[in-house]
Design brief:
By secondary structure, the chain is mainly beta. It contains no helices and 10 strands. The chain has a 4-stranded antiparallel beta sheet, with no helix packed on it. Strand 9 and strand 10 form a beta hairpin. The N terminus is likely disordered.
């Protein structure tokens, strides 16, 4: 089982393997993820095997202007040959006690930019509380071209807008833009 965890007032994200892993002393492990929001997405035109409800590459950011405000992101529904059906974001206003989820509009499963897959999510929160999310989007997985995409949120991660393509690789250049951070 994979979960996103919050600990000791400062959230961190951990992937727990089946059979469990221990959390740091004094921490509380909370399940942030839920059933895939992409379950109805048609992906049969893509190579590889899709692992529905698989969550990988979690990241979390804390808001320097509001200590209890956290945003986490992760790949949802990972493919065997790279990427996922989309990127999910979760936000908390109470230091990780409760979480609300949304999708990032980077790919077609999320109703966004139309890319086939998304991968390598990253999130940060600026000193003014504005959140920034990036990911690697894939047009023709697993062979590229790849594109770095970004979005911002001015409402604590509830909605994401100003969705932009930042840079793109040449067709067939699958190694370009791998890891956007």
């Amino acid at each position: 089982m994979r979960v996103v965890a919050a600990a000791i007032g400062i959230a961190f994200v951990a992937t727990l393997a089946a059979g469990g892993s221990s959390s740091p002393a004094g921490s509380t492990v909370l399940r942030v993820s839920a059933a895939s929001p992409f379950a109805a997405c048609t992906t049969s035109d893509q190579p590889g095997r899709n692992w529905g409800n698989a969550e990988v590459e979690p990241r979390v950011a804390g808001d320097p202007s509001s200590p209890g405000h956290l945003i986490g992101v992760w790949q949802q529904d990972r493919w065997s040959n790279g990427g996922s059906n989309g990127i999910v974001a979760a936000r908390s206003a109470d230091g990780g006690v409760t979480w609300a989820r949304t999708t990032l509009p980077f790919d077609r499963c999320a109703g966004g930019l139309g890319y086939r897959r998304a991968s390598d999510p990253c999130v940060s929160i600026g000193p003014d509380g504005r959140a920034y999310a990036t990911a690697l989007a894939e047009t023709n997985p697993p062979h590229g071209p790849n594109t770095i995409v970004a979005a911002t949120s001015s409402d604590g991660g509830q909605t994401w807008n100003r969705v932009r393509r930042i840079t793109a690789s040449a067709d067939g250049d699958a190694d370009f833009n791998d890891k956007d951070r």
